[in-house]
């Protein structure tokens, strides 16, 4: 039986100059370390769950507030500030209750390309123009989630529910690395003995 394809990622790339970004500096100045912690938490959830966006519902608000031991109102205030400064797209947040951004989607497309995954961004929230994207991006409808209630915006349920693409997955034949790729000693080891070298 095949494994269900995961939408999100186990890890994501972080730029080393992110602390020089004026948006991050404004967030830290306005909301101190708590602001940056909330932003990174949401960013992590975006890449972990859907890959390029997250529908930020009451449940996600509770999870975030509970994780950082903060009040939900304070978390929501920080997220709204993140949309004001442009870390997340304000229009998509207000209309759909979804957190995403241009740089998030660029990073997502790049990670999909590196992982040899199909890139799918729902067309309602796609911030990348076709002529500027160096990799193909498939368009899809936003999935309708009846159980979640958005915090901000109203989701139109008139759209067609999300369906998986009909393409069969391509099996990997080359480039798979074994779990153990070499000898890495935990302690200092006599190298000639470890590699059976006669001196």
From TrEMBL:
<dbReference type="InterPro" id="IPR025400">
    <property type="entry name" value="Lin1244/Lin1753-like_N"/>
</dbReference>
<dbReference type="Pfam" id="PF14297">
    <property type="entry name" value="Lin1244_N"/>
</dbReference>
<protein>
    <recommendedName>
        <fullName>Lin1244/Lin1753-like N-terminal domain-containing protein</fullName>
    </recommendedName>
</protein>
<feature type="domain" description="Lin1244/Lin1753-like N-terminal">
    <location>
        <begin position="11"/>
        <end position="104"/>
    </location>
</feature>
